[in-house]
Amino acid sequence: MAQFPVPFPSASSALCTVTKSGTPTLYTLTLHNGADNRLTTQFITEALHPALNEIERDWRSSEKGGKWDEAALVITGKGAKFFSNGLDFEKAIAEPGFFGSVLDPLLVRLLTFPIPTVCALNGHAFAGGFVVALCSDYIIGKQSGRGWLCMNEVEFGASIPPGLLSILRLKLPTTALLRKTVLEGHRYTPAELHAVGVIDALASEEQVQQKAEELARSVAGKAKTGVWGSIKREAYRGVIEIAQEDKRQPDQFEQNRRALAKL
């Protein structure tokens, strides 16, 4: 069994760190990939998946007599500026299969993780970083300070892949909110999203982590029967199927060429 805290991928090149504390068991995954936690292939494959593997292995090993430890996971970033600034977009679009083979599996895994998950939004969450936050079961946001949430692809001319859009449709409660998010690129404060039920609670910048830990401990008992993840997997079946079949659309220039050819 691992000795916590555990840095990933290694102590000398850590991009994230997992800690474990208390009863019920509280795992914390802290992201610290550079200044803004960009979601690159290296970060996802060498750090985030191995970190989630360690958490899941540790918790699953607790099973005794058909019961597991009460447990929950808090996901946060280091510092007060960024939770995640999304993708390194130029690298992502240049890498064949990034969305379907790298990003989407991470999102599905977070969405269906077998213990309750709480996102402690320590700072801004843009584009893919916003969707990562939405994959948690609960979200705690700041009452004030740095903490914008935005899907800004429309501003810089990028389509939103099917896997990400399917999660946005799942987690944003109305068509009007989806339109405001993906077509208008609205930059939300946590208070705006709390008012419509997307963010579960607000706290001062100094209290976000504590509030997230309190919420995590309050729901940790739901992990003990071992079905939290399987219920989510069935509840979100449609989203998972879209993500697993994710094929990136042609960019706007190719779409324009094809449309003109038909006119």
Helix content class: 40-55%
Low-confidence stretches: none
Mean pLDDT across all amino acids = 94
Reported for the largest beta sheet, the result is: 7 strands, mixed
Question: What share of the residues does DSSP label as strand, in percent?
Answer: 15-25%
Query: Shape from CA axes?
Result: globular
> What class would the helix/strand composition place it in?
alpha/beta
SSE string, helix = H, strand = E? EEEHEEHHEEHEEHHHHEHHHH
Largest sheet, order of strands side by side?
1-2-3-4-6-8-10
- Computed over alpha carbons, the radius of gyration is 18 Å
Write up what this structure looks like.
There is one protein chain. This protein is an alpha/beta fold and 263 residues long. The chain is built from 12 helices and 10 strands. The protein has helices spanning 41-60, 89-94, 98-111, 128-134, 153-156, 162-171, 175-182, 190-195, 208-219, 228-235, 237-244, 252-262, and strands at residues 6-8, 16-21, 25-31, 71-77, 82-84, 117-120, 124-126, 138-142, 149-150, 201-203. Strands 1-2-3-4-6-8-10 form a 7-stranded mixed β-sheet, sandwiched between helices. Helix 6 packs antiparallel against helix 11. 43% of the residues are buried.
Note the main attributes of this structure:
single chain, 263 residues, alpha/beta, seven-stranded mixed beta sheet, three-stranded parallel beta sheet, 12 helices, 10 strands, 43% helix, 16% strand, globular
